[in-house]
Fold each of these.
Amino acid sequence: MKHSLRHALLMKTLAFLLCLIGTGSALAKAPNAPSDLKVKALGVNTFKLTWKDRSKTEVGWEIRAAIGQSVKPQRFQLVPTKDLTSYVVLTNELPGKTLTFQVAAYNGAAGSEKLSKPTKTVTVNTKAETTFKAPTEVVARTLDDGRVKITWKDNCTSEYGHLVEVKTSLGNWTLMGSVGPDISDNFTVAGLEPAAAYFFRVRAYKNAPNLLLTGYSKTATATTLPLLAPSVLQVTALPDGKLTFKWNDKSFSESGFEFESRSGTAPFTKLQDFPPDTTEITPSDFAFETDYQFRLRAFRVVGSVRVYTAYTNVASTKTTAMAAPSGLVAVATGENSIALTWTDLSTREFGYQIRFREEGTTVDQDINLAANAKSHTVTGLIPGKQYSFKVRTTGFFGLTTSAFSVTVNATTRNGIYGNFNPPIIANKFFLYQIQLGNAADLTSLTVVGLPPGLVFDSAKRTIKGTVTTSTQFTATITAVFNNGVTSTKSLILKPITGNPEVVQAFASVSVVAAANKSVPLAGKFADPDTQSAARVFTTMGNFVIILFPDSTPITTNNFLDYVDAGRYNNTFFHRAPQNFVVQGGNFGHANPGGFFTVQSYGQIKNEPGLSNIRGTVAMARIDGQINSATSSFFVNLVDNVGPGNLDEIDEGFTVFGRLTTAGMVLMDSINALPRQNYTVNAGNGNVPLEATPVNDTTAPAVINPAKLVKITSIGAAPILSYQVTSLNPAIATASLNGAKTEVIITGVTPGSTSITVTVTDLDGQTVSQNIPVTVP
C-alpha cells in the first residue's frame, strides 16, 4: 500500500512537469547532452547523481526518475543551476526498491525549455531498511586558528541531513548549520576564535512531513591554534617603480595584515593595512630606484585592541626607475611645426618633458606637459631644418625623471622664417636678410610691395636701402621650392622717426596757493624706436645699448641674463681690430684673482636678419659654428655688410642692439688706442688675445691690467629723461619727484600758467607738452 502511494505521488509530479513541457515552445537551440551519469544510493530516500557537463549554454538540468528497472524515467525535478556536475535527489522512502535515473541539460525560459538528449539510464537499488538513529563516533580535529573539522558515523538511511552544534565552555549551544545526507566525514566549522576550546555535537533530521530529529551524538572537543603568522613574504620589482608582494596566509581568523617598510637603516614604519585573506598586493607609492626592506604581520581586533602575530621574514628589493615612454614618432605638419606621438607606459608620472634641438647645434630646448599626455605639436621651429626629439616622464615638480625615449628626427617643411616686423628707422640705412629653410631647394624668390628707397637683391636674398617716409608698407615675400612647396610671408615695414612722441595730453590742474599736486608722467610720452636699454659703465666713460627684444628675443634675454648676474663686471674689451669692431664680454680681470673667463650660460641659437651696420651690437661666436654664441659681444665700427662680411658669413651674425651717437664716440676712442697681442692665464690655461686695446700712450709688451679698458658694471637705462619748467613761477612752480615719475606742482599766487614737460630720448631727441595750471 505504501509503495503504491509513493509511486502515485512520483508519477503525479512527473505528469505535471510533462504537462508544463507540452505548453511551452522552443526558444533556443538545445544544449549538448551530459554524459557519464553515475548514481549512488545514500539511503532509502537519497541518491547522489554525478555526470559530466558537455554544454556551454545550459541554464539548468532535468532530473528524470522512475521506480523499477524497465520503466522509462520521466521528469522528476528541474534544477535551474548551470555548470552542475552533481546533485542529491530526495524522494519518499523506498527501502529495497530499484530506481532508474537520467539527466538532461536544458536552456530557455521556464515552461519553454529546450532539452538536450538525456544520459544513458542508470539503475540503483536503495538500502534495504529504514533507520533513523543518532550519529556516533563524533571526532573534532583542529585545522588551524579558526577552523575545526568534524566527522561522525552516519547511522541513518532516511535522513535529510545532519545538524551541527557548537559551544564554548561557558556558552550555550549554537547551531552552526545543516549538511546534506552525503556529508559525514568532511564538515568544517569556521569562524572560531584562536586559542579557544570548543565542544561539538551532531544529530540527524528529516521532514516527513514534519521535522523529525534523532538524539544528539556524544560531545567532541577541540582547541583552535593561536593566531597564526603569515610566512614566506616575497617582493618582486616591477617596471615603473612598482612592487608586487606575495605571502602565505596561514590564519583563518585574522582581521587584517599590517605592512611595514623602511629604506636604508631607518626604523620600520607602518605602510598600510590590508584586508583579511589577502595574499598578494601591488602598491605603487614607493620612491624610484630606492633600496627597501619589508615585513608583514597579521592582527586580530579583540574589542578595540589589536592582537598581533610574529613578523614574516624581511624581504628586500630595489625599486625600478620611472617607466620611460616608448614608440616616439615625429612628423612634420608645417613650416614651423612637428607633431609628436608616443606611448605612455607610466601610471605614476606628474608630467612629460620633451627635449629637442636643431640638428647641428648643441642647444637643447624643453617643453613640459601635464600627466597622461600622449602627443604634442612643437611649434615655432625654423622651416627646412632637421630637429631631433626625445621625451621622458617626470615626477613631482620634476624631482624624478625617467630615462629618455629613443631619439627621433624630423625635418620641417621648406619655408621663410625670421622677424617679419623688423625695426626700421627713417633716413637710416636698413638691411634685411631673408632667411630660408633649406635654401638649396629654392626655385624662386620674389618680393613685392616695398616702400620707395628699398630694393630687393635676389642673389643675396636681402632687402636694403634708406626709407625717407614714415608711412607703413606691407611687403609680400614668396618662396617656391623644387618639391612644390610655396611659402608666403608678410613683411611689415613701419619706419619710425626715432624721435620721442607725445602719447597723451595732460589734463588741466587746479592747485591752491601753498599746496602741492602730483601729476603722473606714465603714459604721456613714448620713444617708438626704443623698447629697452642697458647702460654700460667703463673705465673710459659710459655708453648705452638700445636693445631689440622683438627682433632677437633669445639673444636679448641671454645678454640680460649676464647683466643681471653681474657676470660682465670687471670684464675688459679684449679685441679691437682697427676700423672693424670693438669686442668684449669674454674675459675679465679682478683683484685679487687675476684674469678669468666669463662663466657661460651655454650656447644660444643664432637669430640673424638685422644688418651689421655701424653702431650695431652683435654676438660673437666660434668660426664655422652658427649657434655657438655665449657671452661675448662686439660693436660694429663700420658697415660690415659687404659680400662675405658679417651679414652673410654662416647665416649672418645676430644684431641685438645699437649704440647712440655718444656711445659711438667712445667706441671710436677705444679703437684709436694702441693695441697689442697678449697671452694670459684666464683660469683654464693660457689664452691668446688679439689686438687688445690699452689705455696708454703705447701698448706695453707685457699686459698691464690697470691699463685695460674695463666694464665695471652694466645696468638698466631709462628710455626717457624728464625736465620741467614753469612759464610763470610767480603763479606756480614745478619739480620732479625723487623717482622722476611724477611732476610736483606747487601753487604760489592766484592766476593761470603752464608747466612745460620736456622729454629727451637716449639719442638726444626731445619733445615737449604743457600742463595747464590754475591757482584759484
Amino acid sequence: MKTRQLHAEHVESVLARVTRRVAPVWPLDRFVAVNPYLGLLDQPFEDVVHRLGQVSAARSTLAGADYLNLIEEGELSIDVVDEVLAESRLELSREELFRLAAEEGTNVHGVRTVTEVLDGITDGSWSRWIRDHLGAWMAAYFDHDFATWQPSRTVDLFSSWKSEAELDLTPEVLGAPGFRKLLEKLPNDWSSAVRVALQALGVEGAALDLYLHRLLMQLGGWSAHAARLAWERRLRGEPEGDTQSELLAVLVVVEFALKESLLDKLDKSAWQAEVQALSDASRAPVPASVMARVVLQQAYERSAQLSLSAQFEQQREVATPSDRPHLQAVFCIDVRSEVFRRHLEAAAEGVETLGFAGFFGFPVDHIDLGNAEGIPHCPVLLSPSHRVASQAGDETRTKALAEAKLQSTLVGKAVKSFKLGSISCFGFVSPLGLAYLPKLLTDAFGLTRPVPKHDSGLEVALTPSRRDGQSLGIPVADQIKLAANALKGMSLRQGFARLILIAGHGATSVNNPHASGLDCGACGGRAGAVNARVAATVLNNPEVRAGLEAAGIHIPEDTYFLAGLHDTTTDEVTLFEQHLVPAGHASELEALKLALGTAGGTCRTERARRLGGNTSGETWFERSRDWAQIRPEWGLAGCASFIAAPRQRTSGVNLNGRAFLHSYSWEDDPEFAVLETIMTAPMVVASWINLQYYASSVDPEIFGAGNKTLHNVVGGNLGVLEGNTGDLRVGLPWQSIHDGERLQHTPLRLSVFVEAPTEAMSSVIARHQGLQHLLDNGWIHLFALNQAGRVTKRYAGGGAWVDWPHRARATSDDNIAWSEAS
C-alpha cells in the first residue's frame, strides 16, 4: 500500500487539530472542574461516545444493566423510554433496545497502535512501558520544583526527550534491538521527525486522526497537562507553543522506532492489515449498541426533567414582597449553596437570598501577605481585570506580618525539600519523625485543628498604588463599572435591604490533595473570600454609589454590604470586618448571625442524611479535620440542573443540593445583555462541572482520578498518580462520587431552565458557536420557564423549540409491573 508524501504544514496542522481534542487539566493547588469532552463538543454526543470507545475503550454512558436498575428504582420511566425511542433513529422494539444496550462492544478492535499489536505478539508489555517509562519522564520534565533529576529544558520537549532516549538502553534490554540508532537517524526537530515516522507507519487520512487520538489517550493525563499550558498562554494573549504537538511527536516516534526495530516479529503485511482496520474504523457508523445506551441515557435525563418540571408546577406563586427585605444574602450559584439558602430563608422571616457567580463580578489577581506573585480569583474562562493586595491595617504592621509569613514559607519549603530528598529523607525520619507524633495524636483525636481558619483580620486594599513595579488597586471609575455590572448581573437594582451579606464559599479538609476542588471548581480552586471582600468594599464606597446613581442604580444610604465566607464542609459562615458595621445596624447584624447559626445546624443535619446510619450534623466538623477522611464532603456530586430565574420560582422547592441557582429577572434586562452573559459564562462553567462529574462517574478508569488511598502526588501539585508509576490521573477521585455501595453523583447531562423569552435565548445562541455546539449536539438541555415559573418549551436544536408536556413522569409501580412482566 503506497502512501503519499507528507508535507510539514500538513503534519503540523493534523497534530494541532488532534491535540485540541484533549481537554486541559489544572494542578491540584488550583483545581478546575474541567469538561473532559471539551475538545469534542463540535460533534454530536453519540458520535463522541463512539469515538472515545474506539480510542480509549471508554463507555461514556452507564452500562445497559444500570438502566434496568434505574427502572426498578423508579428513576427511569418506561413511558419515557418509549417516548425517546420513538423520537430516535432506531427502529427497534423496547426489548431489542435493552438487549442492544447490554452489548458493550464499541469497535475498539479497529484502533490499535504498534505497541498494542506488539503486546500480543511478543509476550511483552510495550504499552505499559510507554505509560510508566514515558510517564515518569514527563513527570520530571514538567516538575520544575521537586524532581530530583531534571531533564534539559534549554531545548523543546521533543529535543530534550530525544537526546536522552538516544542514550537509554531500556528499550533494547526489553527486546527492541537498534532502537537508539533509529532515533539517532531521525531529524532533531519534532515536525520533521514526525513526518519521517508517519511516512514509515503509513497511516493517513481520517485514519490518521483516529490513530493520533489513540496515541494521545495512552498518556491522556500528561496530554491534558500540556493542553493546560497552551490554554493559559492563549488566555494571556501569548503564542500557545508546540508542547502538545511535541508530546504527541514523542509517542509517534516511539511507535516508529518499535515497529522498525521489531520487524522480524511485526511483518509488513501484519501492520498493513492494522492500518486498513484503522481506515475502516474511521468510516464506521455509530454502532446500534452505542445508540441504544444513548437513547436510554436521554430517557433517564428526561425522566429527571419531568420530575423537576412537576416540582415547578406544584410551586405556589410567591408574590414579590412589597416591603423592604429585612436581610439579604448573595451566595455563589454552587449547588451546595442551594441547601444553605433554603435553610437560611427558613431560619428567619424577611430573609431574601440571591445567587450569582462566586467571584461576584470582580475578577481580580490577589497578592496575599508574604507573596510576591498574584493568584487569579476568577473563572479560568476569564483573565483578571485588576490586581489587589491584602494588608493588615497600617503599613508597619502589614510589612511585619508579610515578613513573618515569608520567613515561615521559606522555612517550610526548606523542611519539605529536606524531608523529600532521596538521601536526606532518611536523616529526617530518624531524629525528627517522632517530633510529629504529639501533633498527629492531637489532630487525630480532634484536640487541635489541622485546618487554619480563614483570617478575618486582613483587608484588601483597593486604592491604586504601585509595589515592586506592579500596579495595584482598582480606580474608582473601574469600581463603578464593575459594581454596576455585578448588581445588574444578580438582578439587584432595587429593593436593597439595610444589611446585605455577600458570601463567598470555600471548604476545609486535611491530607487531601484535591482540597482546592472543594473550594471552587470554577475559579481555579480559590475560595471566594477575596472576591466577597472586594465586592463589599466597592459597594460601600460613597464615590461608587454616586457613580451608580448616574447609571440609574440607587442604593439607599442605610444599606451596608458585609463580606463573609460559607464553609461548605462545616456549613459555618465567617463574617469579615464586623467592626466596620455601623452601630445603627447592630440589630440586623445580630439577627444575621443568629439566622446563619440556625441555618448551619439544620443544613448539616440534612447533609448528614447522605451518609446514612445514625450520623449527626456534627459529623461534618469531624470530617473536616480528620486527616484519614477520604470523603470530607460530597462537593458538587449530584449537580444536574441550572436555573436562571427570580428566587420566587424556586423558594418553595427542595432541590436537594442538585441545582445551580442564578438570580435573573429578564424584565430588568431590556437588551438581554445579562441573559447573554449568563448563557455564555455561568451556564458554560456549570456544564464544565456537570460533565466532569458525569465523566468521572461513567468513565472512572479514563476520566476519573482513581482510588484516593493509592494516590501519590506528582511534583508537589502537578497532579496524582494511582500508585507510584503510570499516567497523570485527571478528573475526580472515586471516593468523591461513590460511597462504597452506590454512586452519589447521578450521571445526568445538565438541564438548564431559564425564565426568558425563547426569541431572546435563540438570538444569544445564534451569536455564539460554542453555545450551538453545546445545545445542538446534546451536551446540555435547555428549557424555557414562563412568568408563572412553569416549564413551557424545550430547545430542540437548530434554533427550534418544542412544547414541553405538563405531566408527571410514570410511577415506580408502572416500572415494577413492566419489570415483572419482562
